[in-house]
Amino acid sequence: MRIFRRKKPRPSPDTILSPEGVPLTLKVAGVGVRVAAQLADVLLTMAGAGAILLLLDLMQLTQPHTLFAIAMMLFFLTRVPYYVITELIWNGQTLGKRLMKIKVVSHDGGTLGTHAIVLRNLLKEAEIFLPGTLLLALDAASPTLSLIAFAWVVMAFLIPLLNPYRQRLGDLLAGTHVIHLPQPVLLKDLAQEAIPVETDGTRIVFLSHQLDHYGAFELQTLEGLLRADTGRMSPTAYGNHRKTLATIIEKIRRKIGYADPVAPADHAAFLQAFYTAQRAHLEQRQLFGDRRADKHHAEADTQA
Amino acid sequence: MAETLTLRSARFRAEREADWRLLESLVTQAERRGLHRMDFAAARDLAASYRRATTSLAIAREISLDRALLDYLEALTARAYLCVYAPQERLGGLVRRFFTASAPQALRRSWAFILVGFLCMALGGLTGFLLYLENPSWYFVFLPPELAGGRSPDATTSYLRSVIYSNDPDTTGLGAFATFLFSHNTRIAIFVFGLGVFVCLPAIALTFYNGLGLGAMLALHVDRGLGWDMGGWLSIHGVTELSAICIACGGGIQMGAAILFPGDLTRREALQRAGRDAVKLALVAAVMLVVAAILEGFFRQTVQDMTTRYAIGWGIGLLWLAWAMLAGRGRA
Question: What's the structural domain count of chain A?
Answer without folding.
Answer: 2
